[in-house]
Design brief:
Helix content: 25-40%
Number of strands: 12
CATH superfamily of the largest domain: Gcn5-related N-acetyltransferase (GNAT)
Largest sheet: 12 strands, mixed
CATH topology of the largest domain: Aminopeptidase
Strand content: 25-35%
Length: about 290
């Protein structure tokens, strides 16, 4: 018999709980300030954790967001996901929450669950790609072309004080969001690069570590005057090549379907998607709760 119980935030440090979270969210909950409003509801079969839902729900906010929903594969199809949502909704109702949102991987099971739980028709937010770089070899990667004269790639850790000051001025909000979301986590030094024209910054490739085996390709930026000049491919290929030569095997791209420019969406779909080992869509949906 499956029972449902809320867990304390300290359980976010337990290996079995962390194992039910996707790598990006696992990194997010490592920060104490991000745990402040976390609600954890577990599905327990005896002493075994078989399902978990995590929501971000502040006491004074009318909106809560479901960050993670996971059911052990062998327990899927038994209604545990629906029960987790139902128990969570009762708790949120008592807190005064009137709307709950969710981002969840698209599968036949999750589509059925959202419909059964009377969530809104889901929309696709992101397309996610995982690559094992041990056999990643598309033509553009094997032969990315050389940078034009006066251009160079500088490892992130080798940037000068002047470069750091310039980055603070430029900010990071105008770039191509290769992976959909800006990260608040430290830049991964292994394969993040500045692109420089002579002594001036022309762009950069920013990556972030998701876990010990996975690097997220987060943010590629070129200043407008340097776009469409065959600079982006050598920059991206260099970052991937550096990772491929390391002991970190998996590359991750999360394509923001709403914000990423069409040209880059087409590049990723045509030149990255066919070489991915795993890819799936992330759905967004919401539900207005009944007011008690």
């Amino acid at each position: 018999m499956v029972k449902y119980e809320f867990l304390g935030k300290e359980t976010l440090d337990r290996a079995e709980v962390l194992g039910m979270l996707d790598p990006e969210f696992r990194q997010w909950v490592k920060r104490p300030e991000n745990r402040e409003h976390c609600l954890l509801l577990a599905a327990m079969e005896g002493d075994n954790l078989v399902g978990l839902i995590v929501a971000d729900a502040a006491e004074d906010s009318p909106i809560a967001h479901i960050q993670s929903l996971f059911i052990k594969p062998e327990k899927q199809g038994e209604g545990i996901g629906f029960s987790l949502l139902s128990h969570l909704e009762l708790k949120l109702n008592k807190m005064g929450v009137i709307k709950v949102t969710i981002e969840i991987p698209e599968t036949p099971e999750t589509l059925s669950l959202l419909k059964r739980a009377h969530f809104s028709a889901p929309i696709r937010l992101f397309e996610n790609f995982f690559f094992d770089l041990s056999h990643f070899n598309p033509p553009w990667y094997e032969n990315p072309g050389r940078l034009p004269a006066n251009f160079s790639l500088v490892p992130w850790e080798e940037m000068t004080p002047a470069d750091k000051s310039a980055l603070l001025i430029y900010g990071k909000n105008e770039g191509i969001l290769l992976s959909g979301r800006d990260s608040n986590f430290p830049v991964e030094p292994l394969n993040s690069y500045l692109l420089k024209h002579k002594d001036e910054i022309a762009g950069w490739m920013e990556t972030h570590r998701m876990d010990k085996n996975t690097i997220n390709y987060s943010h590629l930026f070129l200043f407008p005057e340097w776009r469409f000049k065959r600079l982006a491919i050598p920059l991206l290929a260099k970052a991937i090549r550096t990772q491929a030569d390391s002991e970190v095997p998996i590359a991750f791209f999360e394509l923001n379907l709403a914000e990423t420019p069409t040209a880059w969406q087409n590049f990723i779909k045509k030149r990255l998607r066919p070489h991915s080992d795993t890819n799936y869509f992330t759905l967004y949906s919401n539900k207005i709760l009944n007011v008690l």
